């Protein structure tokens, strides 16, 4: 989608991301890197239709050959619509020569996460004046093993129904005022085995998929 926003505000976020100072090896750092401002130069230059049209205007009634004009540009990926359910998929592999190797490094993730530093300043379903977009963790998928074989398990929080989610899904708006994690009991599920676990055990897991529901 081509945006014609004011260049002065096109790269602005709902909350000041420069104050975030994310810890390396955390989900905040992953999101910060994924949404960083990039400069496109050399072979990554952007094709400029306006510049191309200007260059190809006939001069002195002589038909000119069309030459595409590429220009330096800035690129940034930000969230323009905050979802009711946030799913974060961590890349758990890296190239090692011609092979793929699993990444077993622990990535820190919180019970409540604020997406505001990663949302555009004009996020469509955030009330004007709000500088927080909060989500509460309710599910984690963990993988143990290698790239060739392994086992998937899950951590799930049993909690009361979030009565505000229908408003988010159907109307894209929320009247929720909660800023604390949704209360409930965590369970570890492995095949047919289910047992209660503590929050600390959940937060120390090797997350592969993270599931959050919107609070605010």
From TrEMBL:
GO BP annotation list: protein deubiquitination
Protein name according to UniProt: UBP16 hydrolase
GO molecular function terms attached to this record: cysteine-type deubiquitinase activity
Taxonomic source organism: Melanocharis versteri (Fan-tailed berrypecker)
Keyword Hydrolase: yes
GO-annotated cellular components: cytosol; nucleus
Ranges where the USP domain occurs: 1-215
Pfam families: UCH (PF00443)
Alphabetically ordered keywords of this record: Hydrolase
